Structures are given as C-alpha cells and as structure tokens.
C-alpha cells in the first residue's frame, strides 16, 4: 500500500541536493501545477495528522505571501538537504520559517473526538482563540500565584496570546522569517536577508518545548510525534520549494475560519503552483 512514504534504498544524490519525488507531491505535479490547497490534504493516503498537514499548509501559504523568502530557503535546501536526509537534523532557515509561521498561526493540538465533544459542550467561558493542552479539573486546586480552579473547570493554554508576548518574542506581530535561526547561520546570509529581522535572544528549534513555545504541548505529555512531524514537514516543504514557484490566486482571500477555539483552514483557497524550469 502506498502511504506516500519516501522510497527506501536507492537515492538520487547525483541530482545535487534536490529532494526526491514522493507520491503525494507528484500528484500535485500532475494537476497541471494548479491546485486547491485542499488537494494537498491527501491525509487518507498520507501518514500525516490533520494538525500536521494544517501546519504545513499554513507555512506554504505564508511562503506565498512572503515570496522573498523563497530564494534564501532554496539556498538552505541546496546546501543542507543531503545532511538533513541522512540525519533528520538541520535546514535551520526552513526550521525557523515553519516555526515563525506556526507562531503566528498556531493550529489545533491533537484531540480525540470524544474529548472534542466534551470540550465543545463544557467549555463556555473561553475567548475565541486557539487554545491547547486542555486540562479538566477533577478537583479544586489553587496554584502558587493564587489562581484557583474549581472542580469541573477547564484550564487551557492560550497559544496565540503566549506567542505574542513581547518579552518572549520581540516585535511579536512581525512575521520575521528567520528569528529562531542560529546567529552563525544568519551571519552567513547577505545583509538584505538580515534587514529588519526581529531576532530572539537565543536560537531555538521547532521541536523545542518550554514555557514560551507550546505548539507541541509541555511536560511529560508533550507531543512524542513532534520529531517526526518536523522532519516530514521539512521533506514536504523542501519538495515544494525546490520544484515549484507558488502564489496565492487571491492574496486577500480569507485563509481560515474559527470553530470555537480551533483554526480550520478554508478549502476554497486557491494556490497556483508553477513548475520551475530544470537547470
Ligand atoms: C504539527 C504537528 C503536530 C502538532 C502541532 C502536535 C501537537 C500536540 C500537542 C500540543 C500535544 C499535547 C496535547 C496535550 O498535552 O493535551 C500532542 C500530543 C500528542 N501527539 Fe502530537 N502534534 C503533532 C503531530 C503529531 C504526530 C505526527 C504524531 C504521531 C505520529 C503525534 C502524536 C501525539 C501523541 C501520541 C500525543 C499524546 C502524548 C501524551 O498524551 O502523552 N503528534 N501533540
């Protein structure tokens, strides 16, 4: 059965660092390179979770809205894809781009359907924004800062609010492509690439977890699939970036709608892919 998993064994390394063709993406190619983003959601055939392909789709949309990042990302992929393919580590600019995209547009955490039903029926007092890591208070509890939860309350992580705290993220409203990249990687870039960048005090990766970065949850229950999720996102993004130019057909079109505290991508958003000429 074809799950869209990269073929094992043979490798076309002679084609420089160019990522290989995997089933799902070839399908996009055969669609005259003009596709609805919903077509990219081939989750029935793929090994990605919904939240995962949402995160990748959002990153690709952000790339359409910021096409000036394509060239630096292509260079990153040209220079480091082979190492990444062997180690599942690296591609620091792409890692930072995906993280910045997820910072400003976090999607939903993994949530089993029964919990979702519980959630929509019980959760009434929460603001309309993306929340994650929901916890149901089975007994009343007072935290060290005095915050009190009554039995039956829900406690959640307000992702968007946290991701926009200026002390955590300088110029938090700015989409600052490579803010998480290590300084030595940025220093090797041209001045133009570095202009106007908001930078973090310390570099970090998409898969890191701490009190500032809760995309994958926190503590003992942090997402165990995040290493796979990040690696697969980089494989897919590298394919798209290397092989296609892309643009949003209508840049002003709405990208998502809200279902209670969840962001759901719109399926009618059109993106045009154009094959890049082969060298
Ligand atoms: C971008 C993609 C993903 C995001 C944003 C994400 C996010 C999360 C978050 C926030 C949690 C913690 C939920 C909580 O504490 O209430 C979580 C848990 C979990 N995730 Fe993911 N996840 C992603 C992909 C994946 C993938 C690809 C897998 C499996 C291959 C996976 C497997 C799991 C499992 C098993 C848990 C439960 C861990 C536990 O309760 O101990 N996730 N995920």
Automatic annotation (TrEMBL):
Subcellular location: Membrane
Cofactor(s), by name: heme
Family matches, as InterPro entries: Cyt_P450, Cyt_P450_E_grp-IV, Cyt_P450_sf
Keywords, in A-Z order: Heme, Iron, Membrane, Metal-binding, Monooxygenase, Oxidoreductase, Transmembrane, Transmembrane helix
PANTHER family: CYTOCHROME P450 (PTHR46206), P450, PUTATIVE (EUROFUNG)-RELATED (PTHR46206:SF5)
Family recorded in the similarity comment: Belongs to the cytochrome P450 family.
The protein's name in its UniProt record: Putative cytochrome P450 E-class, group IV
Source species of the chain: Podospora comata
């Amino acid at each position: 059965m074809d799950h869209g998993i990269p073929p094992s064994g043979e490798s076309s390394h002679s084609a420089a660092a160019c990522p290989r063709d995997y089933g799902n993406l070839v399908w996009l190619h055969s669609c005259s390179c003009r596709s609805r983003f919903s077509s990219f959601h081939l989750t029935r055939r793929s090994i990605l979770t919904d939240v995962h392909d949402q995160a990748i789709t959002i990153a690709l949309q952000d790339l359409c809205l910021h096409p000036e990042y394509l060239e630096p990302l292509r260079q990153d992929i040209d220079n480091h894809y082979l190492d990444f393919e062997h180690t599942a580590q690296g591609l620091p600019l792409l890692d930072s781009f995906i993280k910045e995209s997820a910072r400003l547009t976090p999607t939903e955490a993994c949530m089993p359907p029964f919990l979702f039903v519980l959630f929509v029926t019980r959760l009434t007092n929460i603001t309309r924004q993306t929340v994650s890591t929901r916890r149901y208070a089975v007994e009343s509890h007072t935290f060290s800062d005095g915050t009190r939860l009554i039995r039956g309350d829900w406690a959640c992580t307000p992702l968007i609010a946290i991701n926009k705290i200026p002390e955590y993220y300088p110029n938090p409203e700015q989409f600052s492509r490579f803010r998480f990249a290590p300084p030595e990687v940025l220093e090797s870039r041209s001045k133009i690439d570095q202009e106007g960048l908001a930078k973090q005090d310390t570099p970090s990766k998409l898969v890191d977890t701490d009190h500032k970065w809760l995309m994958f949850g926190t503590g003992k229950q942090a997402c165990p699939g995040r290493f796979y999720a990040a690696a697969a996102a980089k494989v897919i993004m590298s394919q798209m970036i290397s092989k296609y130019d892309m643009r949003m057909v209508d840049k002003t079109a709405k990208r998502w709608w809200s279902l209670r505290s969840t962001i759901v991508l719109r399926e009618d958003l059109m993106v045009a892919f154009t094959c890049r000429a082969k060298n």
